[in-house]
């Protein structure tokens, strides 16, 4: 047990040590630019391999000394100080000593301080691109030579100036300062001053001249260089190109032992200045290609400048992968990652939504406009039908029980004019039963189309009708002018009409002479009222039994004196009046088309006949003469056999005298010539007189008779199944005789 445990712990220690070692190695290769154990820096200057301090730390020819000088350590090659070393570019910035020529006015002698640089057999070359041969002075001609031979001139530069005035700082253009390019590939440089140019003429302000190869961009001409001697033996920066010399890449690769580019992911580049080559890390790697494992992968994702990746960045060996974030696609390298929807689809969706919104807005506007239009139409209708006039009149005459109904009110009252609410059809239109909000039951007459004149005068007519107030006339409660064809609202008469009472659809109901007389009288009074008391006079125009309604107490209520029954006032109105019912029509009216009050008298005469005979005004059987009740009556009267026509229920009434008088009255009413007919008022008076003749006898029978009458009538209605004409029997007990 124990030994086993021991072996495990030692293994762990070993593995841990291995890990640490590897971490260290990794650290070393990843950050170090120099060989292990060598100085990476001398003073401020980084020393990357193949450069190195000491022979064992550097490649042959790249050995530097790190010397303490003037307070800091500086790398030196002999007397050349290295200011900067660039691995990738194969360059180094070094110092160069300035050569000097001075004139001694005291003894007229000229002194020279000339310097040279021998880079032969070293990895360095003067950089022809970054350096310039520069002379400074006011009477100066200096040469750059490639050997110690005086006349091996390579290049020369002249700088002149008469005074200080023409000099300017930073400008090296021949006045006090001259710069010229140097050829490529030089290994040696020496400065020569031309003996014929000396400062003997300018020594008052410029005693010395200077010349050196300097880095163009690092050198700024300063007028103080002319006037002071501070450039004497000074050191100016110069750039040298270095390379692993004397073999180009293809040659070097063949000798793997001396091949300098030892790192993985490194490439060889031929030197641009002289024979030799440089090493570079491959694309996507950085570091020192001259060291084993010196080239390290670049984490492009850590540096946004290196990887224009707008999406998710994944670093790879020597590169990186860029992908759009989940749920998007596009070109992440160009920064065009879209969400799942391509821009075109988004555009389409956007347009669709906009269109939808526009559509909704337009719909709303349309609805609003339509509503306004409807209100306008309603107002127009109202105005056209003289609504304002009517309204004003109603306001003026307080206490007038006439109401202007809105279309909506009537719609609600009739359950939107449901067909179950229809209680009658006619030539004029349809009558609906309606229940107003206050539970008031009304009859609503919805006329068919009316003509222009009627339209215009409707309000006026309504006003007149509203003032018609007679207990035997169906009361007009109000109207609705908002609609194209105005609607009239009448009081609701519950018990059917005289036509139903008399003819009863086959069933015979007993009606005493008194009852008939009462109904006739009441109807006559109503008509007389219309003809004479109303102002202007109103002609009913369609008097018939069906238009005489009966209420719970069998009281007659004349209805349906149309919307056009006002007495015509001018000729144009005559033709337009087409009204009346066959069998009741005044024969004279048919000829003249002139509706007069006597036309109503004729029609009333027919109603009287109906009451007497129990026969319909027009029958579609028998001979031609027998078809019309009036003509068969008239001929029967002529032949003295009138009693044959009488209703069975009153045929044997002992009151023959009264019956005859009624018949005479009817005959007078049916006179062919209108003028000869009695007025409605006269008819009413006559009927009143006849009724009073036997008032007392009637009173005795009254109650019992009416009760049985109503019983019969109601049972008849139930059979007809109209449902509207309910009958309250309790009310009958309080029935009062007509007058
Ligand atoms: C350089 O290395 C050689 C052999 O490896 C050794 O003999 C010599 O002392 C070293 N020189 C220096 C300066 O370290
Ligand atoms: C040392 O520094 C002084 C002033 O900083 C300077 O005058 C002198 O030339 C420097 N010497 C060298 C060898 O650089
Ligand atoms: C470094 O300094 C030593 C002693 O000062 C000298 O012998 C040697 O040549 C120098 N080497 C270089 C490369 O400057
Ligand atoms: C060397 O040159 C590089 C780039 O030109 C610069 O960033 C660096 O500061 C220089 N170093 C010194 C010591 O001049
Ligand atoms: C010029 O020459 C004289 C005599 O030889 C000498 O004393 C003097 O120092 C020289 N001047 C300069 C600036 O070198
Ligand atoms: C200086 O130059 C003049 C001509 O420019 C010449 O005559 C003279 O000899 C020169 N002096 C010296 C010392 O070279
Ligand atoms: C430069 O130095 C090399 C050896 O390092 C020598 O052979 C050559 O002659 C020198 N050139 C001159 C001009 O002094
Ligand atoms: C140099 O200075 C003189 C004297 O001031 C002047 O006449 C001349 O125009 C100047 N030359 C240039 C090129 O500026
Ligand atoms: C150049 O600069 C120096 C020092 O800043 C100044 O004294 C001199 O007047 C300047 N020269 C010109 C021509 O501006
Ligand atoms: C130099 O200056 C002196 C006096 O300051 C003057 O006498 C002499 O002529 C000047 N020489 C030149 C060449 O300008
Ligand atoms: C010229 O040199 C002086 C002294 O070194 C310096 O103070 C001045 O700033 C320089 N002028 C320019 C324009 O470089
Ligand atoms: C120049 O000056 C004269 C006298 O002052 C000397 O005699 C010469 O030797 C001197 N020449 C040189 C080159 O310095």
UniProtKB/TrEMBL annotation:
UniProt cross-references to PANTHER family, sorted A to Z: OS06G0706600 PROTEIN (PTHR27005:SF479), WALL-ASSOCIATED RECEPTOR KINASE-LIKE 21 (PTHR27005)
CDD domains in the cross-refs: EGF_CA, STKc_IRAK
Pfam families associated with the record: EGF_CA, GUB_WAK_bind, Pkinase
Residues in the signal sequence: 1-25
Record-annotated membrane-spanning stretches: 347-369
GO cellular component: plasma membrane
SUPFAM superfamilies xrefs: EGF/Laminin, Protein kinase-like (PK-like)
Binding site for ATP: 445
Single annotated GO MF: polysaccharide binding
Family matches, as SMART domains: EGF, EGF_CA, S_TKc
Single biological process term from Gene Ontology: cell surface receptor signaling pathway
Domain annotation Protein kinase: ranges: 417-699
Keyword set, alphabetical order: ATP-binding, Disulfide bond, EGF-like domain, Glycoprotein, Kinase, Membrane, Nucleotide-binding, Phosphoprotein, Repeat, Serine/threonine-protein kinase, Signal, Transferase, Transmembrane, Transmembrane helix
Entry membrane topology: Single-pass type I membrane protein
Principal cellular location given in the protein's record: membrane
Function: Serine/threonine-protein kinase that may function as a signaling receptor of extracellular matrix component. Binding to pectin may have significance in the control of cell expansion, morphogenesis and development.
Record flagged with keyword Kinase: yes
Stated name of the protein: Wall-associated receptor kinase-like 16
Presence of keyword Aminoacyl-tRNA synthetase: no
Domain EGF-like: 297-331
Localization annotation: Membrane
């Amino acid at each position: 047990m124990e030994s086993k445990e021991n072996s495990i712990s030692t293994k762990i220690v070993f593995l841990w040590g291995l890990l640490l070692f590897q971490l260290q190695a990794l650290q070393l290769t990843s950050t170090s630019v120099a060989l292990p154990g060598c100085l990476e820096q001398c003073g401020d200057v980084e020393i990357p391999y193949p450069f190195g301090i000491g022979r064992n730390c550097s490649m042959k020819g790249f050995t530097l000394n790190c010397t303490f000088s003037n307070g800091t350590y500086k790398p030196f090659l002999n007397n050349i100080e290295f200011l900067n070393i660039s691995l990738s570019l194969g360059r180094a910035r070094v110092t160069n000593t300035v050569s000097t020529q001075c004139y001694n006015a005291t003894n007229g002698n000229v002194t020279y301080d000339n310097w040279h640089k021998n880079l032969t057999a070293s990895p360095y070359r003067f950089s022809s691109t970054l350096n310039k041969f520069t002379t400074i002075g006011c009477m100066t001609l200096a040469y750059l030579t490639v050997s110690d031979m005086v006349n091996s001139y390579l290049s020369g530069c002249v700088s002149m100036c008469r005074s200080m005035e023409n000099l300017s700082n930073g400008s090296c253009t021949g006045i006090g300062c001259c710069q010229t390019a140097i050829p490529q590939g030089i290994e040696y440089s020496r400065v020569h001053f031309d003996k014929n140019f000396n400062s003997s003429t300018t020594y008052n302000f410029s005693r010395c001249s200077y010349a050196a190869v300097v880095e163009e961009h690092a050198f700024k001409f300063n007028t103080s260089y002319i006037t002071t001697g501070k450039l004497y033996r000074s050191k100016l920066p110069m750039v040298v190109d270095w390379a692993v010399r004397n073999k180009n890449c293809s040659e070097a690769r063949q000798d793997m032992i001396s091949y300098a580019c030892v790192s993985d992911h490194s490439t060889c580049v031929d030197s641009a200045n002289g024979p030799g080559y440089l090493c570079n890390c491959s694309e996507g790697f950085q570091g020192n290609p001259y060291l084993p494992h010196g080239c390290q992968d670049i984490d492009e994702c850590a540096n946004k400048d290196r990887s224009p990746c707008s999406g998710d960045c994944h670093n790879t060996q020597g590169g990186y992968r860029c992908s759009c974030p989940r749920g998007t696609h596009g070109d992440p390298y160009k920064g065009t990652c879209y969400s799942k929807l391509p821009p075109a689809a988004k555009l389409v969706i956007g347009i669709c939504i906009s269109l939808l919104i526009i559509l909704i807005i337009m719909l709303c506007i349309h609805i609003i406009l339509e509503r306004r239009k409807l209100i306008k139409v309603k107002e127009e209708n109202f105005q056209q039908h003289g609504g304002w006039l009517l309204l004003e009149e109603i306001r003026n005459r307080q206490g007038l029980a006439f109401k202007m109904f809105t279309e909506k009110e009537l719609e609600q009252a009739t359950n939107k004019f449901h067909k179950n609410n229809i209680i009658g059809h006619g030539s004029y239109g349809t009558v609906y039963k309606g229940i107003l909000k206050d539970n008031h039951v009304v009859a609503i007459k919805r006329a068919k189309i009316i003509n222009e004149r009627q339209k215009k005068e409707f309000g006026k007519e309504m006003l007149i009708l509203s003032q018609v107030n007679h207990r035997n006339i169906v009361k007009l409660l109000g109207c609705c002018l908002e609609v194209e064809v105005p609607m009239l609202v009448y009081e609701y008469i519950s018990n059917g009409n005289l036509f139903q009472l008399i003819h009863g659809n086959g069933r015979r109901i007993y009606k005493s002479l008194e009852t008939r007389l009462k109904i006739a009288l009441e109807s006559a009074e109503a008509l007389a009222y219309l003809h004479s008391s109303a102002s202007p006079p109103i002609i009913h125009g369609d008097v018939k039994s069906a238009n005489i309604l009966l209420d719970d107490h069998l009281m007659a209520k004349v209805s349906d004196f149309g919307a056009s029954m006002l007495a015509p006032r001018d000729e144009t109105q005559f033709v337009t009046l087409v009204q009346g019912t066959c069998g009741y029509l005044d024969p004279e009216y048919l000829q003249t088309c002139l509706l007069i009050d006597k036309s109503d008298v004729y029609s009333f005469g027919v109603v009287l006949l109906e009451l007497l005979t129990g026969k319909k005004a027009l029958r579609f059987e028998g001979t031609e003469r027998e078809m019309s009740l009036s003509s068969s009556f008239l001929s029967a009267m002529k032949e003295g056999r009138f009693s044959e026509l009488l209703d069975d229920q009153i045929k044997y009434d002992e009151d023959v005298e009264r019956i005859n008088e009624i018949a005479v009255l009817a005959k007078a009413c049916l006179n062919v010539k209108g003028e000869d007919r009695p007025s409605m008022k006269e008819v009413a008076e006559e009927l009143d007189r006849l009724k009073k003749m036997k008032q007392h006898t009637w009173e005795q029978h009254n109650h019992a008779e009416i009760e049985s009458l109503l019983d019969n009538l109601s049972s008849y209605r139930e059979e007809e199944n109209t449902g509207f004409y309910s009958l309250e029997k309790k009310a009958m007990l309080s029935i009062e005789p007509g007058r």
